[in-house]
Amino acid sequence: MTRYQYAVVVNLCGKSMKGEISDQLAKLLPCRARRRLARGLKRKHLTLLARLRRAKKEASVLEKPATIKTHLRDMIVLPEMVGSMIGVYNGKVFNQVEVKPEMIGHYLGEFSISYKPVKHGRPGIGATHSSRFIPLK
To answer: Average pLDDT over the chain, rounded to whole?
Structure first.
């Protein structure tokens, strides 16, 4: 882990003691997220964190921070991101997501559905053998 990545992990909970950080963070994150953070964050993810920090700093006290748009659906929600407004791209539009404490450890993509759920209607002709007896409208 590089110095910069260590500094990001230290900033997650606002503490500077290495052991305490990992223990607190480990309780909040599932195994897959812990492993991903142990391997280090990529430059794109670190840039997103920096943009979120800047947006929070520029917002007034009682105001929500500006929405930051991103395509990074694989970004893990960290404690530092709580309270931020993020526009997560679903392949068509940016869905606005307000990060809440219960989202920590999940991926941003989980909060921006990328497909239209199927709405099953009535069976049509040829759907089943009994559909021959369903009157047409």
So the answer is: 82
Domain count, the chain: 1
Give the C-alpha separation, 114 to 93, whole Å. Answer: 9
Task: Report the 10 Å Cβ neighbour count for 72.
Answer: 17
Counting DSSP H helices and E strands in the chain, the numbers are 4, 3
Domain hosting 50: range is 3-116
Residue 121 domain flag: no
Tell me the mean pLDDT in the region 109-118: 94
Contact in structure between 108 and 97 (CB atoms under 8 Å): yes
Give domain status of residue 131, yes or no. no
Are the beta carbons of 77 and 108 closer than 8 angstroms? yes
Tell me which residue has tokens 């049509």: 124
Q: Is 23 helix (H, G, I), strand (E, B) or coil?
A: helix
Whether residue 20 lies inside any domain: the answer is: yes
